[in-house]
Request: fold
Amino acid sequence: EAEVAQSPRYKITEKSQAVAFWCDPISGHATLYWYRQILGQGPELLVQFQDESVVDDSQLPKDRFSAERLKGVDSTLKIQPAELGDSAMYLCASSLARGSFTGELFFGEGSRLTVL
Amino acid sequence: AQSVTQPDIHITVSEGASLELRCNYSYGATPYLFWYVQSPGQGLQLLLKYFSGDTLVQGIKGFEAEFKRSQSSFNLRKPSVHWSDAAEYFCAVGGGTSYGKLTFGQGTILTVHP
Reply:
């Protein structure tokens, strides 16, 4: 069964350092999402791509976060510099949707970030 | 703006007992509603979804949910809980104009006692 791949699974870093997360969606999925899940809360959308274009990054802290999906396939989420409050699970998801919402999001297992 | 409220942070039930997890949503148009389950340290898995039609929807693992427009609710139910159902459950709302953006509730942790 096809899955969304994420790496690394766990990352510990010190504040002010740079960190990057990688996601490879299910093949053929046009839409890719990065969600942040703080412990004890539900996932919150950071950025959404349709192919290589950003369609929603309204909740992305753009002073320190950046995301790209250069060829419309895999994606990288970067944080620089990391802050203590960035400690969270970063979830990547993908869906077949292109232009309209069609249904299920498929989630990866997430990347757990701890900032010391 | 769309939002989801899950009033119960933590629910404990005995194995074999029935289960109902509450979800209330706010959405300006016809909502698409979802329940996801998350095991510790894992990603989210879709249990069921409602787009239109029959307001009682069936999902995987014996779960069902009922959409009640008048109450803005989409409660999740299971007639007999198994120990393996222990996990965190998230209700989410989205819509056709939001390009697939889902807004999640804060989650309900389910503990199952033997």
Notes: The first strand of chain A starts at residue 5 and ends at 7. The radius of gyration of chain A is 13 Å. Chain A touches chain B through 29 residues (CB under 8 Å).
